[in-house]
Each structure stands twice: as structure tokens, then as C-alpha cells.
């Protein structure tokens, strides 16, 4: 009778790169110039919730992000929708007497509602959680029988970093060699239980949208930065191996040294771009100094920091005790309500706030 609706809801956390992806070798397929490694955050904090619905009553594909309708006409959405639709299979809901045959998916339209529980496009990797969640929810709705890695290669075509959010724990995005991008996908290095001493604290320095999108920034860096060429060819391949070792052995000293160095090199590439790109601000620089001084005074790193395409600081403490001390220090340097620079903290382990 054309009145039914079938819905699926999924929730996906964002991820933060500890070895950064910066630069594409193919813009449309989103193929990177180097491998990258990330940690997927706890789903309680920074995550996207997406509901996808299909019904013969819908006459076009539509999407709402945080309650506002957005256009689905962009290439990135279209690529993800096309790739998933082409893999759809029969779906049967016996209880409600609904049957969708494989061939029907091409004609049926979708409504998509997505919600981020954190600032969108402020360097907190909202597109990573968003596209990973969209692809995962659509794959469930359309009964797509592909493994997570294959789905990650589809999410990659929405936003590069999204491919890494299909897994928890530490994840590697393998850049791949194929021209069609089939081998540019994410694999899980270790799951979330492997190194569960770590506590992630995010200091939200600004929740404003960034001035230079990562797409524009990467394009300009690829075109103009000599440092990026050197980084992609000579530095990152070695760092990836060292980082994999540090994660496997839970070697916090090496992990922190590599994470901080890679974040700083990514921002150096941004400065080496013409015109230069500034994602960090004075508050970000102060946070780096505070953590660097602390690590040096202890003789061994206690906290790692990393910054994406925005001024917000992601700090990874070696354990809960250190995380508590870190939060105390941050509150001392940036007291709440002092009109100072920090808006809020998002803490990966709520118990340390008690
Ligand atoms: O996937 P995009 O286009 O949002 O780019 C993300 C780039 C960085 O966040 C800066 C680094 C990374 O590897 O996530």
C-alpha cells in the first residue's frame, strides 16, 4: 500500500589521528599520500548518531544534519550512496510483511537524519564520524554483505578520515597502490581493550568553524609544500612502523614522542604551504608548552598532545592518575569563567571528574 517505512539507527565515534593524513594523490577518490594511524574515541563523547529510513512514500533522497536540511547533491554523498546502493541485497521483515527486492533499491528514496553531539567542522573530525556512521547505517539498512574494511573504503570516499572510524581501538588507514582505490582502506591494529589505561582529554579551545577546510588546505599543501613531499616519502613510512611497535608494546614514551612530533610536523607543513595555513592559536601553543615542560620535568612523557585542522587540543594521558593531574593543571592555567581561552573540556573517562 506504500505506507511502510524501514529504519536503521547507528552510532559512530570520531577518531583522532596520531600519525596524520594530510594530502591527497587523487581528489575524487580521496586517496592519500601516506598511511595514517588513529585512535577511535569512546562513543559516549564525540559521536554521530544517524537514522536512515526508506519508504515508497519518499519521493527524493533528503538529509538533515543537526536538525537542518542539507543538500545531498555533493559528490561525496553521491559517491557513498551509489557505492552502497550498488551492493544492496533483498531485505525481508516477515513480522510486518515488508519485502524489498535487490532491484527495488535503485528506485526507492532515503531520508537521513544525523546528529553530532559535538561542534561540527571545528577540527574535532566531525566528518569522520558522520560519513562512517552514514555508510554503516546504510549498509545495515540495505543488507550489504561486505566486511568492515570494504565498507571503510566506501566511507573514505565521503571523508578520508572516516574510513578509520569503522573500527574501535587503534586503526591504520593503508594508503594503497591501486588507481581505483580498492586497496585504500582501514584495518584495526588493536581493539579498544588492548591499551585501556590511556585517557583522552580534549580541550575545546574554539568551537567555531575552521577558516580553511581540510580539502582546500590539503590541495594547497600538495601544490606548494616541499616539506609535505619529504614527509610523505621519507618520514611517515618509518613513523608508521615505529608507531605500530609502540602501540603493540604499550610503550607510552615512544607513543607520546611520535604523536607530538607528527602533530607538530603536520602544522609545520601547514606553515610551509603558500599561502600559509594557521590552525592552532595562542591557546594551542600555550597548551603545547605546558605539556612539554611537564614531560621534560618528569624525565619521561606523561601526556601526548595532538591537534587536527583546528585549535582544539587532544591530550592522551598515560593513565587515570596522570589524567586527573592534567585536568587540574589545565584548570589552573585556564580557570573556568575567567573569560579565558578555553570553552570546555571533554574527558574520555568521566570518573576522573568526580
Ligand atoms: O578526512 P578529512 O578531510 O576531514 O581530513 C582530516 C585531516 C586531519 O584530521 C587533519 C588528519 C587526520 O588524519 O585525521
What share of the residues does DSSP label as strand, in percent?
A: 15-25%
Going by CATH, the architecture of the largest domain would be: 2-Layer Sandwich
Distance between the ends? 55 Å
- Fold-level CATH name of the largest domain: Ribosomal Protein S5, domain 2
Query: Biggest sheet, in brief?
Result: 5 strands, mixed
Proportion in helices: 25-40%
Number of domains: 2
SSE order: EEEEEEEEHEEEHHEEEHHHHEEHE
Structural class: alpha+beta
CATH class (first level) name of the largest domain: Alpha Beta
Low-confidence stretches: none
Q: What is the typical, i.e. mean, pLDDT?
A: 92
Bound molecules: (3R)-3-hydroxy-3-methyl-5-(phosphonooxy)pentanoic acid
Amino acid at each position: 500500500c506504500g505506507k511502510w517505512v524501514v529504519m536503521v539507527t547507528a552510532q559512530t565515534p570520531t577518531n583522532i589521528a596520531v600519525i596524520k593524513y594530510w594530502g591527497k594523490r587523487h581528489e575524487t577518490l580521496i586517496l592519500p599520500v601516506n598511511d595514517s594511524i588513529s585512535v577511535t574515541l569512546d562513543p559516549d563523547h564525540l559521536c554521530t548518531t544517524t537514522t536512515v529510513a526508506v519508504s515508497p512514500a519518499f519521493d527524493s533522497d533528503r538529509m538533515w544534519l543537526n536538525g537542518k536540511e542539507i543538500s545531498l547533491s555533493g559528490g561525496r554523498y553521491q559517491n557513498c550512496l551509489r557505492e552502497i546502493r550498488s551492493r544492496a541485497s533483498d531485505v525481508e521483515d516477515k513480522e510486518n510483511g515488508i519485502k524489498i527486492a535487490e532491484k527495488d533499491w535503485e528506485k526507492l528514496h532515503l531520508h537521513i537524519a544525523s546528529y553530532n553531539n559535538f561542534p561540527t567542522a571545528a577540527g574535532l573530525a566531525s566528518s569522520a564520524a558522520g560519513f562512517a556512521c552514514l555508510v554503516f547505517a546504510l549498509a545495515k539498512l540495505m543488507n550489504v554483505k561486505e566486511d568492515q574494511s570494504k565498507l571503510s573504503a566506501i566511507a573514505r570516499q565521503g571523508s578520508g578520515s572516516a574510513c578509520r572510524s569503522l573500527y574501535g581501538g587503534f586503526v591504520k588507514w593503508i594508503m594503497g597502490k591501486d588507481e581505483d582505490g580498492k586497496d585504500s582502506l582501514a584495518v584495526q591494529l588493536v581493539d579498544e581493550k588492548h591499551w585501556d589505561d590511556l585517557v583522552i582529554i580534549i580541550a575545546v579551545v574554539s568551537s567555531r568553524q575552521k577558516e580553511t577546510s581540510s580539502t582546500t588546505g590539503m590541495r594547497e599543501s600538495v601544490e606548494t609544500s616541499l616539506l609535505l613531499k619529504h614527509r610523505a616519502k621519507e618520514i611517515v613510512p618509518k613513523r608508521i612502523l615505529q608507531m605500530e611497535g609502540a602501540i603493540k608494546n604499550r610503550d607510552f614514551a615512544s607513543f607520546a614522542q611520535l604523536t607530538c612530533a607528527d602533530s607538530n610536523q603536520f602544522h609545520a607543513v601547514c606553515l610551509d604551504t603558500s599561502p600559509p595555513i594557521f590552525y592552532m592559536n595562542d591557546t594551542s601553543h600555550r597548551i603545547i608548552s605546558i605539556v612539554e615542560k611537564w614531560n621534560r620535568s618528569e624525565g619521561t612523557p606523561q601526556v601526548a598532545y595532538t591537534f587536527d585542522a583546528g585549535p582544539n587540543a587532544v591530550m592522551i594521558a598515560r593513565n587515570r592518575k596522570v589524567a586527573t593531574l592534567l585536568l587540574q593543571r589545565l584548570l589552573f592555567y585556564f580557570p573556568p569563567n575567567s573569560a579565558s581561552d578555553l570553552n570546555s573540556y571533554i574527558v574520555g573517562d568521566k570518573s576522573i571528574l568526580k
